Amino acid sequence: MYGNQSPMKKVGVGNHGQQVFPSKKVISNKNKNEDGSEQTNKYLNLAIKVLLWATIFLLPLFFLVNTPSALELSKQVLLVGLVGLAFLLWVGRMAVKSRINFRANFLFVPIFVLLIIFGLSAFFGDYRVQSIWGFFGGESRSYISLVFFVAFFVLFVNNIRTKREIFITMIVLLVSGVLTGVLGVLQLWGKFIIPIEGTHNPFFNTVGSVYLFSVYSSAMFLLALNMLIYVEKVVWKIVLGILTLFFFVILSIINIKIIWIALVVALALIFGKVIIGAGKKESSIGSVLLMIFLVLSLLMILRGQPIVKKQLPIEVLLTNKSSAKIAWQAVKHDFLLGTGPANYINVYRLYRPLNLGNFWATNFNTASSYFLTLASTVGVLGTLAFLFVVVVGMVYLFKGMFSMDEKLSSLGIGIGSVWILLTILLFFYVANMTVLFMWWVMFALLVTILAFSPKTQLREFSTGSASSKPSLLFSFVFVLIIIGVVVALYLQGQKYMAAVHFNKALVADAKGEDIQNVVNELNSAILLDGDRDLYYRNRSLAFFAIANKKISEKGKDFNAEDAAFVSNNIKQALANAGRADELNPHDVDNKISLVNVYESLLPTMEGAGEKALDYAKKAVELDPHNPAVYQRLANIYVAMADLETIKAQAKQEKELPDKAKEYLVLARENLNKAIELKPDFLSARLALVGVYDREGENDKAIEAMINARKASPTNPNLAFQLGLLYLREEKLDEAGTQFAQATQIDNNYANAHYFLGLVLDKKGRKDLAIKEFEKVLELNKGNKLVTKIIENLKAGKEALDGLQQNKEIKREAKQNDKQNEPQPSINPDVEEQVIPKEATPNVEEQSDDNSTNNPAENQDSTENTDNGGNTNNNEDNTSNDNDTGE
Q: CB neighbours (10 Å) of residue 729?
């Protein structure tokens, strides 16, 4: 009976809230759940910190050579990937805890204001896609990079909380810095330890240019010095002392004045704090070290020469004065939000300075400093937002510095000095992904250290700490952020793979592979990233090259099938160029790409000239201070004048048509504008000679050529051309003088010797003429024409006796030149073929309809073609684009 009653008793007791066994079972499950939750939370917490430290360690070192932007794009991919993953884990950790926790203070306000204003500037900018993702080599200025810099900052401040974690972060920074520094120094001395093609260059390093490597090293020097003052163990002091000297030597080798000035300011700040703490042993040691390095830095400023002489590349940057003028003009033009981040090249082209000497044709994609680049692209609001962040950061630094214990205060001012150093350099020098990331890392470290001060501490915000409405809003915002992170990770992956395919196109281009291989890679790039104008512009050039090659190959055997093939490729070239211009109508290169195609259709397609002129005029509007654009416009007018002249000649009209005269006047106006912008612009002066020649104004042509010679007196070709003009007027003495001067400048100038010989023959100086033609024969051994001329002269005959009609030799020479021409290329500078008229009707009928379609969707006609060729490309980090047509 007892056994049967026992369970009933337990149930009865349980009903009164005093169960024994059931309650133990529930408590046991609860403990297990709590333990599991805590364990998961612990692992997630560790994973987030590891990802943050991995980002800090890897970003200065990381690069991939399979994209056109080996450093910047690779680092952007790393930043977005690791920080995005860390952010998702952070949200996952909060989900496990069923509570959203957020640590922040007032400093977060200007940072989020900066993020919002930059986002608006990117959205309403000239080219939204470029503002958001950047261009090849300029990813650091993109909005997505800023978003993930801020995400890193938020994650760091919310997850790095203890002094031990702060110290680990500093160690990770230094270890990464040492590896980066050692690698950079070895490269400088020609010790190439990276087994990757393209890195065996003494000026290659994993940060960027040699000079940006110096900026990075200055931050590492100051960090190592501060840690040397901060730590107490002798072993640590020895190691940190060696590292401090190592980074100082790097600075001494590269030797940039602005870095030394910024270092003096930062060292003076630390020195002042150490003096305040005088009397302590570590303060005395610190003050001695700081004094030594402060004096050495001042000496480097005064000396102006590096301690260790090393041949370094010349860095070409705009001056601060020119950059400031451009920024002022840009702000006046787009006052509030500017043209958008990463769109500096558009601003530069609108307001480019005129006194750049040999760099007049260089398209700079950055101002002389990061700050002036911002001021030029994000308007007054973006500039003020950045200044707001800097000012509040400074206030917090000095506010919290004196309200912590002495040890933390010294560490805080040390990290703060590194941040101030980088801030000064952002105002007076350029920056890239590594430098900007270091700025945000130091900022995050500083805020985390200042959190120990009661005056600058971080407040904890939580969904459970207020009413349900704010909690719901907080949760909704976090969900939106999660969606944004996932989308960013996906799009970044797509854009990276598109860049890989584009790089393959560039490699195929450089190797001279079949142009169709280039087109196929560009197709793949566009399918993954269909909003980048660069891809379409290059594909337009590739289709155009295929058409030119077919025409060149077929020659007189050109048939209807060939016409259809060429017509289709020209149509594709127009469609792609049109799509590029549609995506980015503010880029001059997209206008010129359309000009290239329409100009080639001038002789055979009705209305092509007007369209070429229209796009050339728009190019002038976008780049009004570039003399080359005015010359390009003039060239189109000249070509249209020539067409009118040909039509008149076909009708056996001897007078120059009125329409041709009108075009030549407009050509002259544009050439004079080009010369006004650049008085020594030789090609424009020569083109002006050609215009006068067409107008029959030989005296003016001679005068223009004399001016061209004054602009370039050591150019033998100008002397030769002037000699030809004089020869046409039968001014033998003047012509002979010019030909003689050409041979004096270049004794191997065969044509000058040839025509000098002809002049001497006409003047009756056959003995001297024979010497000139013997020189020509020496330079052109076995030339039948020259051999015959010498025979004539020795026989007392005129030099060209019986040779005036000898077209066979000329035709043979022309054919030999033709065989030496390069194959059609993506590069628009390649000599273009005249598009046959039978290939243009189809283009005229369909190009406008297809110009806004994605050509990737309609390319079957070119997939199976077998057309060889090669493309030319150049990667220009001063400019940007890795555009085969740049």
A: 13
Instruction: Show the tokens assigned to 879.
Output: 């400019």
Q: Which three-class secondary structure state does DSSP give residue 672?
A: helix
Average pLDDT, the chain: 84
pLDDT over 80 (residue 422): yes
Task: Calculate the CA dihedral of residues 702, 703, 705, 708 and round it to 10 degrees.
Answer: 170
Confidence of residue 137 (pLDDT cuts 50, 70, 90): very high
pLDDT at 3: 39
Three-state helix/strand/coil letters over 37-82: HHHHHHHHHHHHHHHHHHHHHHCCCCCCCCCCCCCHHHHHHHHHHH
Task: Give the C-alpha distances (Å, rounded to integers) separating 663 from 630, 652, 655, 657, 658.
Answer: 14, 20, 15, 10, 9
Partnered with residue 460 across adjacent β-strands are 103
* Separation between Cα atoms, residue 36 and residue 34, nearest integer Å: 5
- Nearest of 794, 750, 749 to residue 776 by alpha carbon: 750
**What pLDDT sits at residue 9?**
36
Whether 737 contacts 724, CB under 8 Å: no
Please, are residues 401 and 461 in contact by the beta-carbon 8 Å criterion? no
Give the whole-angstrom CA distance, residue 775 versus residue 679. 36
Task: Give the amino acid at 204.
Answer: F
In whole angstroms, give the CA distance from residue 226 to residue 290. Answer: 9
Q: CB within 8 A of 639, min separation 6: which ones?
A: 599, 602, 609
Taking the C-alpha atoms of residue 563 and residue 567, their distance in angstroms, rounded to an integer, is 6
Cα–Cα distance, 687 to 813 (Å, whole number): 26
- CA distance linking residue 224 with residue 250, whole number of Å: 14
Collect all residues with Cβ–Cβ distance below 8 Å to 455 and sequence separation of at least 6: 399, 400, 403
How far is 771 from 757, CA to CA, in rounded Å?
Answer: 8
568 with 574: CB under 8 angstroms? no
Q: Which residues contact 735 (CB under 8 A, 6 or more apart)?
A: 723, 724, 726, 727, 755, 759
Please give the structure tokens belonging to residue 138.
């300029």
Q: What is the pTM of this model?
A: 0.84
Residue 347: pLDDT over 80: yes
The SS3 call for residue 10 is helix
CA 631 to chain centre: 26
Residue in the structure block whose two tokens are 């005029």: 617
Q: Is residue 206 exposed (0-12), middle (13-18) or buried (19+ Cβ within 10 Å)?
A: buried
Q: 882 in the Ramachandran plot: left (φ > 0), alpha (ψ -120 to 50) or beta? A: left
- The per-residue pLDDT for 345 is 95
Contact 347, 377 (CB under 8 A): yes
Q: What does DSSP assign to residue 365?
A: S
Tens of pLDDT, residues 685-704: 999 999 999 998 989 999 99
Contact assessment for residue 202 and residue 189, using Cβ atoms and an 8 Å cutoff: yes
**How many C-beta atoms lie closer than 10 Å to residue 869's C-beta?**
26
Two structure tokens written together for 705: 């050529």
